[in-house]
Give the backbone structure.
Amino acid sequence: MSDQDVEAFLEHVGVKGMKWGVRGAQRAQNRALNKASRAKDKATPPQFTPSKKPLTKFSSEYKRDIDKARANIRSGKTAYEYKSAKFQYKKDKVELGSREAKKTLRKARAKKYAEIETSRQVRDGGEMVMKLLSDVSRQMQSNANARARF
């Protein structure tokens, strides 16, 4: 076999559709964006927003907030907003850097969990009694099942 045969035989074409060197460039750009984000966070002091006046239990606003959170969860709006925030995170990672993108995703996640917690709260006295009775009956049934096994 001559050198020409070897060169003709051992031909490397790479992986179809692969863009060479793109990942390294993205990594360097991401590092620069994250560094700028850290510098911006150091330069600006943390913002302390005054918390909302706590709602008294069983006030009309309290009930409205609970009903709104429950409706958002039932309709799937909460899940949709979080899913779209995750999709946006993938885009923002390239444009804003992973650090800033994670910040926005964390805000969306905190909003989702806050809405879930709000929806689990008891709305009024009648609802509290029903929840208490269902918990007691569930406990009695599990005790009866435990006794039946022995």
The chain has one domain: 3-44+58-149. The CA atoms of residues 55 and 62 lie 6 Å apart. Helices lie at 3-9, 22-43, 60-75, 77-95, 98-120, 125-149. The chain has a mean pLDDT of 83.
